[in-house]
């Protein structure tokens, strides 16, 4: 059996569709999950969201052992969680850091990611529609032995 792609979402993403729609759009997290599941195909998908840093780190540890690839939207954890960064350093497969908005067009506090140096790739500014593209890209990377 092939290992699934993990999609992990950080704080406040459970409010997608309601939270600052001018920045994050109107797509809900449930709709994002459906798009990702379709993109994952038969390899499968584990899709989660948490507002807890501890829970995110535990899920990263689980992904280290159980996934083929990791798509992570760490949200606010991106900019301050060294503990999460340390967990991500252990991830052995392809990993995409994902942001719905273009963090580089936003206030300076959003410009210094602790995740980018340990991620395989970074996607930002594609909106919620970027999630399934990232999942497909990760599947291709796994298939290519990346």
From TrEMBL:
<feature type="active site" description="Proton acceptor">
    <location>
        <position position="24"/>
    </location>
</feature>
<feature type="binding site">
    <location>
        <position position="86"/>
    </location>
    <ligand>
        <name>substrate</name>
    </ligand>
</feature>
<keyword id="KW-0057">Aromatic amino acid biosynthesis</keyword>
<dbReference type="GO" id="GO:0009073">
    <property type="term" value="P:aromatic amino acid family biosynthetic process"/>
</dbReference>
<dbReference type="InterPro" id="IPR036441">
    <property type="entry name" value="DHquinase_II_sf"/>
</dbReference>
<dbReference type="Pfam" id="PF01220">
    <property type="entry name" value="DHquinase_II"/>
</dbReference>
<keyword id="KW-0456">Lyase</keyword>
<comment type="similarity">
    <text>Belongs to the type-II 3-dehydroquinase family.</text>
</comment>
<comment type="pathway">
    <text>Metabolic intermediate biosynthesis; chorismate biosynthesis; chorismate from D-erythrose 4-phosphate and phosphoenolpyruvate: step 3/7.</text>
</comment>
<dbReference type="InterPro" id="IPR001874">
    <property type="entry name" value="DHquinase_II"/>
</dbReference>
<dbReference type="GO" id="GO:0008652">
    <property type="term" value="P:amino acid biosynthetic process"/>
</dbReference>
<dbReference type="GO" id="GO:0019631">
    <property type="term" value="P:quinate catabolic process"/>
</dbReference>
<feature type="active site" description="Proton donor">
    <location>
        <position position="99"/>
    </location>
</feature>
<comment type="function">
    <text>Catalyzes a trans-dehydration via an enolate intermediate.</text>
</comment>
<comment type="subunit">
    <text>Homododecamer.</text>
</comment>
<keyword id="KW-0028">Amino-acid biosynthesis</keyword>
<dbReference type="GO" id="GO:0003855">
    <property type="term" value="F:3-dehydroquinate dehydratase activity"/>
</dbReference>
<feature type="binding site">
    <location>
        <begin position="100"/>
        <end position="101"/>
    </location>
    <ligand>
        <name>substrate</name>
    </ligand>
</feature>
<dbReference type="InterPro" id="IPR018509">
    <property type="entry name" value="DHquinase_II_CS"/>
</dbReference>
<feature type="binding site">
    <location>
        <position position="73"/>
    </location>
    <ligand>
        <name>substrate</name>
    </ligand>
</feature>
<feature type="site" description="Transition state stabilizer">
    <location>
        <position position="19"/>
    </location>
</feature>
<protein>
    <recommendedName>
        <fullName>3-dehydroquinate dehydratase</fullName>
        <ecNumber>4.2.1.10</ecNumber>
    </recommendedName>
</protein>
<dbReference type="GO" id="GO:0009423">
    <property type="term" value="P:chorismate biosynthetic process"/>
</dbReference>
